[in-house]
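Propose amino acids for all 124 sites.
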């Protein structure tokens, strides 16, 4: 059984991050930090929401990578079963890198020999 939980986890993280960001943007009042030369208002839900969205995107990409890697392993296994020596892409790359071979000239039928008349010197 091949059960992969990365995509649902990624979607859940992205959705939670968007909800948390929007909640911080429109509902929550900023928390004010006092510093020596003034105050800093921070809505802590916004950066946390952005972090969750970023985390979800990273997990989604790892899920894509693992799926592509599994598909590639299956293709190699199938090629081994079918005893295919080179994939089609590799053969086109080697042909592109090698110099083109000259085309053989078509052999034409030999022309029948005609007797050429000896040249005569007409100037005397």
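Proposal:
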């Amino acid at each position: 059984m091949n059960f992969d939980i990365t995509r649902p986890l990624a979607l859940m993280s992205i959705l939670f991050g968007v909800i948390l960001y929007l909640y911080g943007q429109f509902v929550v009042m900023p928390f004010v930090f006092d510093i020596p030369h003034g105050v800093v208002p921070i809505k802590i839900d916004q950066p946390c929401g952005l972090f969750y969205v970023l985390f979800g995107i990273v997990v989604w990409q790892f899920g894509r990578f693992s799926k592509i890697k599994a598909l590639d392993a299956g293709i190699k296994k199938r090629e081994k079963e079918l005893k295919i020596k080179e994939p089609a892409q590799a053969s086109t790359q080697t042909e592109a890198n090698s110099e083109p071979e000259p085309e053989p000239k078509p052999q034409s039928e030999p022309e029948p020999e005609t007797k050429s008349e000896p040249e005569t010197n007409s100037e005397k």
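The mean pLDDT is 80. Helices lie at 6-26, 45-82, 88-97.
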